[in-house]
Amino acid sequence: MTPASARLGLLGCLSLTVAVTLGLGSNQHVGFTFLLPAGGTECFYQAAARDDSMEVEYQVIAGSGLDVSFALMSPSGYRVSSDSRRSDGIHMVDPTEDGDYRLCFDNSFSKLSEKMVFFEVLINSQSSASRGRDEWADAATPESLVGYQLEDIWARMESVHQHLERSRQTQAVLRAFEARDRYLLEDNLWRVSFWSCLNLLVMLAVAAAQIYTLRRLFSGTKRVCT
């Protein structure tokens, strides 16, 4: 087993390699890291409500070539978007259909190398946002607003929430980039060390052969002179 395979195996211990269902619930942001086997395909499902917006972003962290194929299927069976052998990608769906979207990652073109893939799904639910706004409006009274309009307060809070979600998403992507760069550095370090040691051994062997040849040459010349 090569060091690269060993590192992928250790990373795989912290991930899942089977298809799972990611529930929507109250969590609108889902991040996941998994090990995509060589020659295999993995599919994941994300529930969405009608007229929401969904953003899917993926990043290949480790593996030979750092590329996978990606396809996003709608609940009705239509291919919304797809990529062929790319290391990363971002796809938007706006508005969404009511049902489960299928996210498929394909590594069938690589028969020897497994891939470590990170992806995240961000859903902006318009229905839950409007429902929360209505509930807050019902609970508040005009006297408690102290001169501020309720819609302005809600708009500011929603803007802050969206910025926080975007910041968390950006940090997750940066962590994925950092993991991929660290893998590349470790893999390149192993290659450089291997070839450096091999070149050093070849140089030592050539030097020893030259010294041995020169000693045999002068030893034979001395016997002829006497």
From TrEMBL:
Residue intervals of the GOLD domain: 41-123
Where is the secretion signal located?
Answer: 1-19
Residue ranges annotated as transmembrane are 192-214
Establish whether keyword Lipid biosynthesis is in the entry.
no
Q: What is its membrane topology?
A: Single-pass type I membrane protein
Cell location: Endoplasmic reticulum membrane; Endoplasmic reticulum-Golgi intermediate compartment membrane; Golgi apparatus, cis-Golgi network membrane; Membrane
> Is Transferase among the key words of this record?
no
Q: Which family does it belong to?
A: Belongs to the EMP24/GP25L family.
Specify the protein name: Transmembrane emp24 domain-containing protein 1a
Task: Please give the organism.
Answer: Betta splendens
> Quick one: which gene encodes this?
tmed1a
